[in-house]
Design brief:
- By secondary structure, the protein is mainly alpha-helical.
- Helix 1 packs across helix 4 and helix 3 packs antiparallel against helix 4.
- The longest helix has 21 residues.
């Protein structure tokens, strides 16, 4: 199922944390540390923006997949998973954006 991809990807990312940097792209990224991962997230976010502005839906989907992937690498770096993010989205479901922001900041 499509939903299972997040769980499988999370498991793969966790396994790559222990892998040799020469064995995979993700293992190499983990070995370089958080700054390298953050740089990739920033690059991918920029590419999503450019793809959106370019109007090519296929390219936008491709770049968004890259961004989500690198965000998952960042989450794994911090010991959290896509499931943690999905739980937070579920908590927010049905809540207005203003109310949700106020619940976090007290503004």
């Amino acid at each position: 199922m499509k939903q299972d991809i997040l769980q499988r990807l999370t498991e793969t990312l966790e396994a790559r944390k222990q892998a040799s940097p020469e064995s995979s792209y993700v293992a190499k990224l983990f070995s370089k540390g958080e700054d390298a991962i953050l740089k990739k997230v920033g690059e991918e976010a920029t590419e999503v923006i450019l793809a959106s502005k370019g109007g090519d839906k296929t390219h936008l989907i491709y770049e968004t997949a890259d961004l989500w992937f690198h965000c998952m690498v960042l989450l794994a770096q911090h010991g959290v998973s896509a499931d943690d993010v999905l739980k937070e989205l579920a908590r927010r479901e049905g809540m207005s954006g203003i109310a949700e922001k106020d619940s976090r900041t007290g503004d």
